[in-house]
Amino acid sequence: MRAILLKLQVQIFFFKDNSGTLHTPTPDSFLDGITRRCVIEIAKSKGIKIIERKIEPEEMSSFVGCFLTGTAAEVTPVSQIDKFNFSVCDLIKNLSKSYQNLVRKKVVT
Fold first, then answer.
1. 47 membership: H or E segment, kind and range
2. Residue 15 · residue 55 · CB < 8 Å
3. Most exposed among 15, 41, 58, 89, judged by the fewest C-beta atoms under 10 Å?
4. Are 44 and 51 contacting, i.e. CB atoms less than 8 angstroms apart?
5. In this predicted model, what pLDDT tens digit does every residue of 54-97 receive, in sequence order?
6. What is the per-residue pLDDT for 106?
7. 27-45 burial string, b = 16+ CB within 10 Å, else e?
């Protein structure tokens, strides 16, 4: 059994359909980064279900959207991995905008 695993300083999320559910690998062999955790919290606050699990490469054809998170990547849509193509769906755009609003919020002193 081969599971998708990222050894980079980014984390990956997949969007399967219009069910409002994001799939992401369980952070058992990679860094559970701050950006990843922020995006998960933003998604949950919007009623988006998060499923953390092992994701097999064979599943890639069932996903319609994909994005990466990370300190430098922030929320970056992915259009293609190997032969699998993904759309930049509204869910990804919305999460990216919410993340941008959060991290660029001005603090009044």
1. none
2. no
3. 58
4. no
5. 999 999 999 999 999 988 889 999 999 999 999 998 999 999 99
6. 62
7. eeebeebebbebbbebbee
Mean pLDDT value across the chain: 87
What are the domain boundaries of the chain?
11-103
Residue pair 91/64 in contact (Cβ under 8 Å)? The answer is: no
Instruction: Yes or no: say if 70 and 9 are a contact pair by the CB < 8 Å rule.
Output: yes
Q: Alpha helix (H) ranges present in 7-89?
A: 34-45
DSSP 72-102: TTEEEE--EETTEE----HHHHHHHHHHHHH
Given CATH 3.40.50.2300, say whether it is the number of domain 11-103: no
